[in-house]
Specification:
binds adenosine-5'-triphosphate, alpha/beta, four-stranded antiparallel sheet, Rossmann fold, nucleotide-binding, single chain, six-stranded mixed sheet
Length: 263
């Protein structure tokens, strides 16, 4: 079966969103299929988090249609949320809880039995080398340890779609390799991964499809090889600079440093 004969897992039509009178999304059309790892990129403030939060049902007031698992998310049916995992860019963990308390709590929110959530969370912590701190308070955790707890919490209920915002933030080189491999395995199992990041070389390597949002529109959509052959640029960083019309990094840096030196 070709990809386009299947139902999209996510589909957006004419998605528009404004904050006050400031338009952020000006008409985003998108269909995402099971098994895709979408590298979702764009300049700061382009609207990536806004799009993700709309899909998560956290932002209202958008125009257009968003369907997840074939259902319009505006229809008050929140069942789809049980099949979604989310790792936000800034982790809002409950510092006073232990990892065990936090993860079993999240597991229960997603409908797992307490005992099962505990057993699963403990084994996942073990795989990330955190078995010894399972009963410790999150307030004592380093940045990377917190990030691993967030990743585990987003996956406990075995979601079909995973939204990740800078998921490798704070992870050491070994853990980065493990997480990249986990994402590839999940995609091979038919999970859909929506991966937002500014680390272009990682996005280039892990994404099966890259979507570049700029000025409220999708300005590029394809595999890295497709984008590269269209833009005649070498790396994803070069393609990003080209498509967002940015060529002044040296001039901006020089000006910045010259202002720093004005004392
Ligand atoms: N709650 C809000 N109220 C008002 N404006 C907002 C709100 N949330 C986002 N914005 C604005 O919407 C625009 C898009 O923000 P968004 O966080 O979606 O960007 P982003 O692409 O995720 O950026 P970054 O790469 O910096 O994380 C920005 O101009 C931002 O100031």
């Amino acid at each position: 079966m070709t990809e386009h004969m299947r139902e999209p897992v996510i589909s957006m039509r004419k998605l528009e969103m404004s904050y006050g009178n400031k338009p952020v999304l000006r008409g985003v059309d998108l269909e995402v299929y099971a098994g895709q790892i979408i590298g979702y990129i764009g300049p700061n403030g382009a609207g990536k988090s806004t799009t993700v939060k709309i899909m998560l049902g956290l932002v209202e007031g958008y125009r257009g249609e968003v369907r997840i698992f074939g259902k319009d998310i505006a229809d008050e049916n929140i069942d789809y949320k049980r099949r979604i995992g989310y790792v936000p860019e800034v982790a809002e963990l409950y510092d006073s809880l232990t990892a065990q308390e936090y993860l079993t709590f999240i597991g229960e929110l997603y409908g797992l039995e307490q005992r099962k959530a505990d057993h699963k969370a403990r084994r996942l912590m073990d795989k990330f080398g955190l078995e010894e701190v399972y009963f410790n308070r999150i307030s004592s955790f380093s940045k990377g340890m917190r990030q691993k707890v967030m990743l585990i919490s987003s996956l406990l209920h075995n979601p079909d779609i995973l939204f990740l915002d800078e998921p490798l933030s704070g992870l050491d080189a070994n853990s980065v390799m493990v997480v990249k491999e986990i994402l590839a395995c999940l995609a091979a199992e038919g999970k859909t991964i929506f991966y937002s990041s500014h680390i272009m070389d990682v996005v280039e390597k892990i994404s099966s499809r890259i979507i570049l949002l700029n000025g409220g529109y999708i300005v590029a959509d394809g595999s890295f090889q497709e984008l590269r052959s269209q833009s005649h640029e070498g790396t994803l960083e070069d393609i990003f600079n080209e498509l967002t019309g940015f060529h002044e990094h040296k001039a901006v840096a020089e000006k910045f440093v010259s202002i720093v030196q004005e004392v």
